[in-house]
Amino acid sequence: MINLSKLKVLSIFGTRPEAIKMAPIVKKIEENENIEGKVCVTAQHREMLDQVLNIFDIKPDYDLNIFKPGQTLTQITTRSLKGLEDVIKKENPDVLLVQGDTTTVFAGALAGFYHKVKIGHVEAGLRSGNLYSPYPEEANRKLTGVLTDFHFAPTEKSKENLLKEGYPEEKIFVTGNTVIDALLDVVSEDYKFGDELLNNIDYENKKVILLTSHRRENLGKPMENIFSAIRDVVLKNKDVEVVFPIHLNPKVREIANNILKGLDRVHIIEPLDYLPFANLMARVYLVVTDSGGIQEEAPSLGKPVLVVRKETERPEGIKAGTAKLVGIDRENIFKEVDLLVNSKEEYKKMANAVNPYGDGKAAERIVNILLEKTICN
Question: Domain residues for 225?
Answer without folding.
Answer: 196-352
